[in-house]
Amino acid sequence: MPGLYLEVKKPQKSGKPGSKLWRVKYRLDGKENRFAIGAYPAIGLKEARELAWAAKREIANAVSPRQAKLAKIDAQHLTQARTFEYVAQQWLQLKAPDLVEKSLAGFKGALANHVYPVIGQRPVSDIRLEHITQIITSLKTQGSMAMAKRVRTIIRSVLGFAEGRGWVERNVALSNSEELKIRHVVNSNPAIEKPDDLGVFIRRLDDLNDNNVSMALRLLVMLPVRPGELAVMRWEDIDLTGADWRFIVGKTRHLSKTKHIVPLPTQAVAILRRMQKHAVLDDQGKGWVFVSPVYPAHPINPTSLLKALQRMWQEHDITAHGFRATYRTIAHERLGIDPVVLELSLSHRMPGALGAVYARAQLLEQRREAAQQWADYLDLLKQKVLDRYSDQFAGNSDLVTTELPSNR
C-alpha cells in the first residue's frame, strides 16, 4: 500500500542481524512524518498492511497515529486500573451520604467477604455473567439466601454505576439467568404468638424493678417500634400533651426525612410521665429517655432489652424485634384492626399503586385508635392471667402471690 515500507538497519554488532521495522510515511498539517508500526518478522506483511490502513484512517481524521496509539495505551491502562473493587469504592463514596452507618457497614462487609475475593481485582470491563453466578451459587449452596440476594443487589448496583460512566458496555448482572434467581427470603424473628402467652409475659413485666430497661420493655410491648428506635428515644421528640412521639426512621433515613408519628396510648403517656420526673436534660430540655446506667451520656443498648427478655422468657425463643410481629398478628386476628393501619403503624412502606396515597394520608386518627385499643387489650390479657390464678387458688392468699406464672 502507498507509504508502507520496511526499514532495515545494519547490525550494531557483528554476527547479529540488523533490525527490520515496518513504517508508514504520511503527511499531516503539511508536514511529512513517519509512524513505526512494528518489528518484522513479529509483524508480517498482512498485519502490517492492516495496521497501516488503520493509521491512514487516523490521519484522514487529522489525528496523528502516534497520538492515537498513546491514547489507546492510556485507555488500556485505565481499563486495567478500573477493577471491580476500585469501582465499588467509587460507588460507595457516592452512596455514603444517603446511607445510615449500619447499612454502609453491611455493604462493605458483603463486598469484602464474598465479592472481592472472586472479582475484586478483575477489571470491571472483563467481568462476565459466569463470574457473578460463581459468587451467587456458592452462597446459595451454603444456604445463605439472604446474603446471596444482598450480594446480587450490590453487584448490580456497582456494575450499573460503571455502565452509567461508560466503563462497561452493559450490566451483565441484570441477566435473567437461572443461576441469578434467588427464592424469596423471609427472616422471621421469634415472637409470642398466643394471647395467653402474651398475658403471662406482661404479668411478668410487673415483677421487674423500675429501671430504664424494664420501662423500655413495657413500652416495647405496647408500641410497635423497632428496639433500636425505642432505645434512642429522646424527650424533645415526645409530646405528652398531644400524646405522640415523632422521629425519623433510621432504617429508611436515606429514603425519606419525614418523621414517623407514633401515637401514644394513655398507658404509655403514664409511663413516660413517671419517667419524666427523673429525666436528665440539658439546658435546652433535650436528653435520652432511657439513659445507660453505665454511660450516662448515652442511651441504653438495644442488646440489653434482648438479654432481659431472654431471662424473663426462658422456656421459648424470643427477640426484642419479635414484638412487632406479635402486634401485627394478634391485633389483626383478635382485634380486627385494618391491615393498612397496622402496616402504617409499623412504619412499613405500603406496596402497590395506592402506597403513596396511604403514605401521605398516614391515617393518624385510625392509628391512634388502634394504639389505644392495643394497649387496652394488653391490660385485659394481664387481668385474665391474674383472674385465672386468683380463681385457682381462691382462699389461699399466699398461693395467689407465689404461684402466679413468674420467672423471677
Automatic annotation (TrEMBL):
<dbReference type="Pfam" id="PF22022">
    <property type="entry name" value="Phage_int_M"/>
</dbReference>
<dbReference type="InterPro" id="IPR038488">
    <property type="entry name" value="Integrase_DNA-bd_sf"/>
</dbReference>
<feature type="domain" description="Tyr recombinase">
    <location>
        <begin position="188"/>
        <end position="372"/>
    </location>
</feature>
<protein>
    <submittedName>
        <fullName>Integrase</fullName>
    </submittedName>
</protein>
<dbReference type="InterPro" id="IPR044068">
    <property type="entry name" value="CB"/>
</dbReference>
<dbReference type="InterPro" id="IPR002104">
    <property type="entry name" value="Integrase_catalytic"/>
</dbReference>
<comment type="similarity">
    <text>Belongs to the 'phage' integrase family.</text>
</comment>
<dbReference type="InterPro" id="IPR013762">
    <property type="entry name" value="Integrase-like_cat_sf"/>
</dbReference>
<dbReference type="Pfam" id="PF00589">
    <property type="entry name" value="Phage_integrase"/>
</dbReference>
<dbReference type="InterPro" id="IPR010998">
    <property type="entry name" value="Integrase_recombinase_N"/>
</dbReference>
<dbReference type="InterPro" id="IPR025166">
    <property type="entry name" value="Integrase_DNA_bind_dom"/>
</dbReference>
<keyword id="KW-0229">DNA integration</keyword>
<dbReference type="InterPro" id="IPR011010">
    <property type="entry name" value="DNA_brk_join_enz"/>
</dbReference>
<dbReference type="InterPro" id="IPR050808">
    <property type="entry name" value="Phage_Integrase"/>
</dbReference>
<keyword id="KW-0238">DNA-binding</keyword>
<feature type="domain" description="Core-binding (CB)">
    <location>
        <begin position="82"/>
        <end position="163"/>
    </location>
</feature>
<dbReference type="InterPro" id="IPR053876">
    <property type="entry name" value="Phage_int_M"/>
</dbReference>
<keyword id="KW-0233">DNA recombination</keyword>
<dbReference type="Pfam" id="PF13356">
    <property type="entry name" value="Arm-DNA-bind_3"/>
</dbReference>
